[in-house]
Amino acid sequence: MSLTFKETMSGYFALGVTDPVEGANVGKQNSTQLAMHAKVSLDNLDRFLSDPNHLGSLTGTIDFLPFGAGIAASSGVFNLFKPTDDPDMTYMVYELAFQHKGQDYYLAGHKNVKDDHGFDLWSDTTTLYTCLHQGKDKSGPIVGAGILTLGVKQLADLLSTIEVPGATSLAEKARAIEKFGAFFAGKLWDSYIIPKFGKQLLDKSHDETLHYDVIVIGSGFGGAITGCRLAEKGLKVCILERGRRWEVKDYPRDPKDAWWWSNEKPAELNGWIDIRTYPDMAVAQCSGVGGGSLIYANIFVEAEPFVFDSGWPKEITYESLKPYYEKTGKMLNVQEVPDNQWPAKTKLMKEAAEKSGFGDRFRKMPLAVTFDPDFSYDRPDAFGDQHTKYHTNAFGQEQGTCVHCGNCDIGCQVKARNTLDLNYIPLAEQHGAAVKPLHLVQRITPLHSGEGYRVDFNVIDTNKQKLTPGFLNAKKVIVAAGTMGTNDLLLRCRDQYGTLPNLSPVLGTGWSSNGDFLTPAVYHHRDISPTYGPTITSAIDFLDGSFKGQRFWVQDGGFPNLMKDAVTGLSKDHHFGHFFSALQSLVQNKSPLSSVMPWFGQAVDASDGVLKLSRSWIPPFRHKVQLDWNIKKSEGAVQALVDMHEKLSKATKGEAKVPLTWSILKNLITPHPLGGCRMGTHSADGVVDHKGEVFGYPGLYIADGSIFPKAVGLNPSRTIAALAERIAELIEP
Questions:
Q1: Selection from 605, 648, 616, 594 nearest residue 280 by Cα
Q2: In terms of domains, do 103 and 166 share one?
Q3: Cα gap 266→37, rounded to integer Å
Q4: Which of 160, 222, 338, 479 is the most exposed place for a label (fewest CB within 10 A)?
Q5: Within 10 A of 73 (CB to CB), how many other CB atoms are there?
């Protein structure tokens, strides 16, 4: 959709001067004025809004008595809120090329959009500081200057000239105008209202002292690992984490505990789980020191070689990542569930595979869990904490052994899970790294020296429920805020703050849900007890594409025991109900959860989602990241996984309950979002190179699931970890 409007500005102007203010004064004395009658054209409104420079085209005519009236200008440049070296100021740019007596001229003007003392919004947005250059562009010598202004009448005339060529209805035209209006009003709100009347969201200091060698944003698999390895190299490292440093005593258990994280209200809601909802998709993440390792299902599996056959830089292959896969496996002490302590759901998985003719596809999963070979389901109160065996791990941290309590996703109270806060993070701290929880990063800005970056953040005070702005500088910055957090941060830096305007145009594209799906199945005469045992223990592998031409695998799912009492209430909450809707009907029908098998799995989806920054059209014009995702190209992969869930259920006399959210609405939820900042060979096809370094910004890196060019069709944590190990190894001290 395109949009056009016309604008007339006029004012005093003089030849023979180079400064606009001086030119306006001389022009006033000589009674010489210049008028610019411009037509602004935005050929693609969405592209214009997402472009950091907000570039359009300009045509029109010029009236200037020494040259004549109605001089045609058939080409020109228009920028709205173009970033400058001052992060608090942007330009409105108007430039027209024309000829007079066979000589090329270039009229270049800009409006300074910046809050100063007093309320200067009107003067800033209506005052065009203009220079006339001899030649085809503004590199030529200045031969005249002056100041043009937009009057009240001209503004009214401008509004009446807005057109939306190609609009097929008044509603479509209104939507385009609303979108442009929200952008324009929102930018003015940011520049003039917030600095005067809003909360101070960013520290205004201009100190460029380098506080650290490296700042790492996020402490999940990407952040903890890169932070640790760079600290081992002797670099001064700081890890900024938005969430809390969770202790066993603080794990959420009661409905009134700190369960939820809210991006809109982080001072009030800064708990365990962050669920973000979009049209047809929801994303579940964790918040805390250790990142996703705190909430994931312990699966630490290598990607299949086929994943790297296309889409990745040539340097990234399965063979090149193999040493890092092995390194991370040792760090997280990967094990399988011992054969003498299989949960009932693991036995059902093997039985289902064999009865369906897929016995050779069944395999146990590598888990980042410490097991006790003597654990037994047969002893009294088998899942009680008293059965754990405590020990000190290789990093000086106390851990227990797994008692199969089923609480993997909400914090293991005996510390049997080898989460990052028990290995990489303490090792990083032992080498001098500073870990700062409750630091929510807002933006990244290159230092004027060109030798590093400033990281602005808000410190969350959980007691006073307030945010305090602060900042730190470092020579290098590694963004590892998770797929959603990293995309959110970088989109804001490019499109909201303009501090990283040259980020790749493919930022936000290629997003994937990794094909996650859960199908509950009811077994009327069989005890499955999915609340006991590690959350996932095994898989039936169809990643070779042999079933319906789709690549996926099936896993046994599980959920914490306390969920039995919480499912109904949580399903009624419209913000999070999508997450629990698959279980709600079972509770309503009074089917005991002990007889439910949560068939789970991942599939290789189309990886064609797009994340982009939008803005509300009413004050306070909040920015929000939107996800444009369509099931069309991914439906075959997900449906093949669902079909296999039904096939395996039927083979073992279970009744699959495919959620209506899928069968009717085609809605999904994923704990494994990937992409948006994909690896590539240059900025036209990627945001980072094979080393994780951002194109156009030396010393700025990304190290999390957002750099995946496409889905992997299985749990991605070990591949994220391997890539992080490789990125850290390639960063020079």
A1: 605
A2: yes
A3: 48
A4: 160
A5: 22
* Torsion over CA: 115, 118, 124, 127 (sign): negative
Residues 666 and 700 occupy one common structural domain: no
Q: At what angle do helices 318-331 and 717-730 cross, to 10 degrees?
A: 100
CA angle 693, 698, 700 (to 5 degrees): 55
Which CA distances in Å does 282 have to 491, 515, 615, 640? 19, 12, 20, 21
Residues 116 and 22 in one domain: yes
Q: What are phi and psi of 458, to 5 degrees?
A: -115, 130
Tell me if 58 sits within 8 A of 48, measured CB to CB: no
User: Could you identify the residue written with the tokens 């982009």?
Assistant: 612
> Do 24 and 114 fall within a single domain?
yes
Q: What is the CA radius of gyration of the chain?
A: 29
DSSP codes of every residue in 601-655: EEE-----EEEEEEE-SSTT--EEEEEE--STTTHHHHHHHHHHHHHHHHHTT-E
- The full length of the chain comes to 733
Give the list of residues 6+ apart from residue 175 with CB closer than 8 angstroms, or none: none
Phi and psi at 594, nearest 5°, equal: -65, -20
Compute the distance between CA of residue 605 and CA of residue 452 in angstroms, rounded to an integer: 38
Give CB contacts under 8 A, 24+ apart, made by 109-115. 109/36, 109/148, 113/81, 113/89, 113/187, 113/188, 113/191, 114/86, 114/88, 114/89, 114/90, 114/191, 115/88, 115/191, 115/192, 115/195, 115/196
CATH number, domain containing residue 427: 3.50.50.60
> CATH no. for residue 594?
3.30.410
Q: Which residue has the tokens 């440093």?
A: 245
- What is the Cα–Cα distance from 724 to 454, expressed in whole angstroms? 22
Q: Which of 640, 671, 702 is the last residue of a domain?
A: 671
Q: At a CB cut-off of 8 Å and minimum separation 6, what does 279 contact? A: 627, 629
Name the domain boundary from 620, 642, 671.
671
Helix axes 635-651, 344-355, angle to 10 degrees: 100
Q: How many domains does the chain have?
A: 3
- The domain containing residue 215 runs over which residues? 202-332+417-501+676-733
One domain for residues 141 and 42: yes
Helix, strand and coil content of the chain, in percent to the nearest 5, comes to 30, 30, 40
| pTM of the predicted protein model | 0.84
